[in-house]
Amino acid sequence: MTRGPVVALSGGVGGAKLALGLSRVLPASDLTVIANTGDDFEHLGLSICPDIDTLTYALAGLDNPATGWGRRDETWSFMDSIKALGGEDWFRLGDRDLAVHVERTRRLRSGEALSQITIDFAARLGIGVRILPMSDDPVRTRVLSDGGWIDFQDYFVRQQCRPVVRALSFDGAPMSQPAPGVIQALRTAGAIVICPSNPFISIEPILAVPGIREAIEASGAPVVAVSPIIGGKAVKGPTAKMMAELGMDATALGVALRYGDLLNGYVVEHEDAADVAGFGARVTAAKTLMQSLEDREALARVVLEAADSLRR
Amino acid sequence: MTRGPVVALSGGVGGAKLALGLSRVLPASDLTVIANTGDDFEHLGLSICPDIDTLTYALAGLDNPATGWGRRDETWSFMDSIKALGGEDWFRLGDRDLAVHVERTRRLRSGEALSQITIDFAARLGIGVRILPMSDDPVRTRVLSDGGWIDFQDYFVRQQCRPVVRALSFDGAPMSQPAPGVIQALRTAGAIVICPSNPFISIEPILAVPGIREAIEASGAPVVAVSPIIGGKAVKGPTAKMMAELGMDATALGVALRYGDLLNGYVVEHEDAADVAGFGARVTAAKTLMQSLEDREALARVVLEAADSLRR
């Protein structure tokens, strides 16, 4: 059976784990990863794209296994020094990581598109898989807490997800266009994978770019999501807390209901299988916690098999 | 005898040595250093001010004694990383040094003046002496070589001073204004010191800012220069080569003739004293080669005594 190319929608840490797994069980030319850019922000005058970078570092084998973000073998001289100058130091930028932000910012200012820069950096770091930002236009996730609207990284990093989330907004999304290649990849996809990322802050910004949700629905390819919730808890990050604050059940079923009929298949941890049995998509129970490289590859195979079994 | 405040005009490495010496033999509130900004440039999207930074690092005790530029205990992760991304790596930016450029660029873009940022950085690094850029307006030294006009850092760093210099230009100088505080400092100076910097590329850009030369001439304070040439050789950098290429004698006398009647006093190495005996300013022979901290302090005392002996 010919599957055709696979497109994965991904945020940062959790999504990057599955993207790495997919990259190891598929030919490089058969995988496109569409990255959330709603978390992007300007900091110290630099354009920072956390999810693109986490994906790039993971796929290049440069990621920091201890943190999930940033680079391995990192040094922190820049942060020490900028603190002494009175600069902002709440967002940790390692010395190696910084080169990506400085060079990307320079190229963006010279008029290059984010997608072009992202593809070029990936090639220079030896990545065969295609990483695409969801859009070359700025889309910025903002969080409504009891104190008003705040920028996502202010909520996520500076305030460490402490504020109660009342609502989310993706500023700029209505006017944004999908990055070059995104719609074509979705149209010709043999399978579309929604990585185990936070549905609200990693996947929904992607779906908010006009044309992307429609292209997924029109593609005819099976759409398979992996739950980021295991036994009522998020593997990492604020997903469960955020779901509860937004009035939803912080469960695998809660995530599935949020995606609704976009999904044809849903991969959950074994212990959650019974809870989602009544959901409309075909459920696959598997080990979804990815600790080792083998876990990533095994889950990638489960997801691809689930998609293959759904192909019309 | 009351001397009053001292103003020093300085470029980078050589000038910073004497500035440090002066800072150690004068009360901090009695010294203002006016820094050349003709070497400044934009690189990787960052505003880099080599002479201001060399002075700042030297006066803060953060300088790299091995190179004379950059910072001590530096790390180079950023350079390794940007090279892998295809970024320009001919101008070496250490990780600690980089924080100065990033934070300065951010503040300049937000509308702050270079002089304000320079003063603030100095204060945060514990420097009591005042460091002022010659101007908050961009002045850019350019070099005419046989291949045409090139930017100064292209000549100085990328091409390592190999091109033959036919002429120099200080782009922007005619429209520039002295930075706030510069004219007032010169007007009220008790002594004006021209550090042993390259006269063409470090001191003349300062003198090219409209109003600065006039303020020096009008101040009534003795003006004492220290020769950057010892026995026909520059201590460091391309001064001697450049003088020869510009058709001048690469000697202490050649430098003195270039400054002309701006000088009241001239401090030269003992071996050069006879050569400059016929020059119009009062000559002081001393050890001008500054290898140790003691050398810097001793030369500073010689310069101040020379100025004191000239006070009208």
CATH class descriptor name of chain A: Alpha Beta
Strand proportion of chain A, as a percent range, falls in 15-25%
Order of strands in the sheet with the most strands of chain A?
5-2-1-9-10-13-14
Radius of gyration of chain A, CA atoms, in whole angstroms: 19 Å
Class by SSE composition of chain A: alpha/beta
User: Given the structure, what is the number of helices of chain A?
Assistant: 12
Mean pLDDT metric of chain A: 95
**C-alpha geometry of chain A:** globular
Enumerate the spans of chain A where pLDDT stays under 50 for 5 or more consecutive residues.
Answer: none
- Main beta sheet of chain A: 7 strands, parallel
Number of domains of chain A: 1
What does this structure look like?
2 copies of one chain form a homodimer. With 312 residues, chain A is an alpha/beta fold. Chain A has one domain: CofD-like domains (Rossmann fold, 3-Layer(aba) Sandwich), CATH 3.40.50.10680. The first copy, chain A, has 12 helices and 14 strands. Chain A has helices spanning 13-25, 50-60, 77-84, 95-109, 114-124, 152-158, 182-187, 199-207, 212-219, 239-245, 252-259, 293-310; strands at residues 6-10, 31-35, 41-43, 46-48, 130-133, 140-145, 148-151, 167-171, 191-194, 223-226, 229-230, 233-234, 265-269, 282-286. In chain A, helix 1 (13-25) links the parallel strand 1 (6-10) and strand 2. The model of chain A has no long low-confidence stretch (mean pLDDT 95). Chain A binds chain B through residues 44-46, 71, 74-75, 77-82, 84-87, 94-100, 102-103, 105-106, 109, 120-121, 124-125, and chain B through 44-46, 71, 74-75, 77-82, 84-87, 94-100, 102-103, 105-106, 109, 120-121, 124-125.
